[in-house]
Automatic annotation (TrEMBL):
<protein>
    <recommendedName>
        <fullName>Pyridoxal phosphate homeostasis protein</fullName>
    </recommendedName>
</protein>
<comment type="similarity">
    <text>Belongs to the pyridoxal phosphate-binding protein YggS/PROSC family.</text>
</comment>
<keyword id="KW-0663">Pyridoxal phosphate</keyword>
<dbReference type="InterPro" id="IPR011078">
    <property type="entry name" value="PyrdxlP_homeostasis"/>
</dbReference>
<comment type="function">
    <text>Pyridoxal 5'-phosphate (PLP)-binding protein, which is involved in PLP homeostasis.</text>
</comment>
<dbReference type="Pfam" id="PF01168">
    <property type="entry name" value="Ala_racemase_N"/>
</dbReference>
<feature type="domain" description="Alanine racemase N-terminal">
    <location>
        <begin position="8"/>
        <end position="222"/>
    </location>
</feature>
<dbReference type="InterPro" id="IPR001608">
    <property type="entry name" value="Ala_racemase_N"/>
</dbReference>
<dbReference type="InterPro" id="IPR029066">
    <property type="entry name" value="PLP-binding_barrel"/>
</dbReference>
<feature type="modified residue" description="N6-(pyridoxal phosphate)lysine">
    <location>
        <position position="37"/>
    </location>
</feature>
Length: 227
């Protein structure tokens, strides 16, 4: 299984490269975020050994048990928090993460700003946009994104570097990817996080600079009990 991780990473890199070239882009513009949620520290170690340095976790608690030990000996490792974040986890996220991709509401922005002062640490931030305007989905609603981005800068002085989205599970993701890329351009934001195992090549064609790939690297995740 650990051999598979290195082979899977090589395959994903080849696919990133051809998708970028197809779109007339430099493959070096695209960073692979290896999403290791639910997989053990050994799987992350295998990916590190294969040269992967950027990882994504969606739960702060899980990242806190897995990553601090792995950082020793791997100073280049970067951890992205990509999952919905409760305000009471903001301080742990600020302490652990290099990038928080799931900033999506004023209360969280406030909590992160306060945590940054307390921890004396400023991870980079990305604003998650609910690009399909789906009820129940995290992410700032599209029509509120402008005001929220402005507030992040002016009210909380937060280091926002880009936008992130998870398009609706059903239907063609391409128009949603295009919409997020356009929104990032309009705001002068250079980093665009979109695309997962099933659709990262489409996301690259539409301008992704970060793709978040889990199962295609680490294998299927166990189904959560009780769904
Ligand atoms: C789990 C997860 C991914 C990776 O999903 P795969 O389909 O396994 O590649 C990407 N982004 C977020 C926010 C996730 O929670």
């Amino acid at each position: 299984m650990l051999d598979d991780i290195s082979r899977n990473l090589a395959r994903i890199h080849a696919r990133i490269e051809s998708a970028a070239r197809r779109a007339g882009r430099d493959p070096a513009e695209v960073t692979l975020v290896a999403v290791s949620k639910t997989h053990p520290a050994e799987a992350v170690a295998a990916a590190l050994a294969a040269g992967q340095t950027v990882f994504g976790e969606n739960r702060v608690q899980e990242a806190a048990t897995k990553f601090p030990g792995l950082r020793e000996g791997h100073p280049a490792m970067r951890l992205h928090i990509i999952g919905g974040l409760q305000t009471n986890k903001a301080r742990d996220a600020v302490r652990l993460a290099d990038v928080i991709e799931s900033l999506d509401r004023p209360k969280l922005a406030q909590a992160i700003a306060e945590a940054m002062v307390k921890e004396n640490r400023r991870p980079e931030l990305m604003v998650q946009v609910n690009i399909g305007d789906e009820p129940q989905k995290s992410g700032v609603p599209r029509q509120e994104a402008d005001a929220f981005l402005r507030a992040c800068r002016e009210e909380w002085d937060l280091p926002v570097i880009g936008l992130m989205c998870i398009p609706p599970a059903e239907g063609d993701p391409r128009p949603h990817f295009a919409a997020l890329a356009a929104m990032a351009r309009d705001h002068g934001l250079s980093r665009i996080s979109m695309g997962m195992s099933g659709d990262f090549e489409t996301a690259i064609e539409e301008g992704a600079t970060l793709v978040r790939v889990g199962s295609a690297i680490f294998g299927a995740r166990p189904q959560p009990v009780g769904g």
